[in-house]
Amino acid sequence: MGSLTVSNKILDKYFGYLKNLDSKSKRSLIDKLTRSIETKSRNDIELNKMFGAWKDNRDSDEIISEIKDSRINKTITESFE
To answer: Is residue 19 part of a domain?
Structure first.
């Protein structure tokens, strides 16, 4: 999930809505925001694990040939009627 960056002006507007909450609601909101920060830091994914080279003993010609051989040509078409 991506992060949303908000300007101070927008934060001040949110604070205007939230400042009138009772203390219990404010503490609950603080707890939820704190947990969301802690969760994000624990779930950071290492970028180098998201990519990598194709590992295969076959050369490119063999792979291309296998892909082409696995194709299925349909000669019968179905009607939408």
So the answer is: yes
| Residue 47 domain flag | no
Task: Show Cβ contacts of residue 63 under 8 Å, excluding neighbours closer than 6 positions.
Answer: 56
Q: How many domains would you assign to the chain?
A: 1
Asked if residue 57 belongs to a domain, the reply is no
User: Is 62 a residue whose pLDDT tops 80?
Assistant: yes
Q: What is the mean pLDDT of the segment spanning 71-81?
A: 77
Token look-up 């792979």 returns 63
* Cβ-based neighbours of 66, under 8 Å, separated by 6 or more: 58
Amino acid at 59: D
Q: Which residue range forms the structural domain that includes residue 23?
A: 1-34
Which residue in this structure is represented by tokens 């001040």? 12
Question: What is the C-alpha to C-alpha distance for residues 37 and 25, in angstroms, rounded to an integer?
Answer: 19
What was the pLDDT predicted at 76? 75
